[in-house]
């Protein structure tokens, strides 16, 4: 397995290792718990503003995970592709992914 990332086309089955995988998984587990909490709040007929506040917190937490993954991708995949001379392809891919996560 490689560190994130060896540049591969989308849909590749090549395995990559996120450099901070355990931290990302911990964050995602907390987010999962927050989402379950929101379900419980709705089920318990909690005040709408409290539910919306928790939803905003989950969105912010997911944005932080996205930014970390984007940073990993840029420091790994993008940097490697640029060194290999694949500027056009990797920049196009990066622009597309930034549009998706913004």
Stated plainly, the CATH topology is called: Methane Monooxygenase Hydroxylase, Chain G, domain 1
β content, as a range?
A: under 5%
CATH top level assignment: Mainly Alpha
Q: Can you identify the CATH superfamily?
A: Metal-sensitive repressor, helix protomer
Number of domains: 1
Q: What's the gist of this structure?
A:
This protein is mainly α and 102 residues long.
Describe the protein's topology.
Blueprint: E1 2-3, E2 16-17, H1 21-43, H2 48-83, H3 87-101
Parallel strand pairs: 1-2
Helix pairs in contact: 1-2, 2-3
Summarize this structure as a short list of keywords or feature phrases.
single chain, 102 residues, mainly alpha, Methane Monooxygenase Hydroxylase, Chain G, domain 1, two-stranded parallel sheet, 3 helices
